[in-house]
Amino acid sequence: MISSGTVQKIREEKGNLKYEYFFPMEEGETVLLIDSWENQEAIDEHHKSPMMKTIM
Fold it and tell me: Which residues of 5-27 are buried (b: 16+ CB within 10 A; e: fewer)?
């Protein structure tokens, strides 16, 4: 996600305030995503965007 530029593209989306990934040191298959958006409309637009296909 980081090396492909996907994270940066999401951070540049309108309304994005924060988009971070965290990986527990003892759990290799768990990822914690923390994202923050200006409002519900911004997150709804993100969920409709082509970026969601990239993420999945």
Answer: eeeeebeeeeebeebeeeeeeee
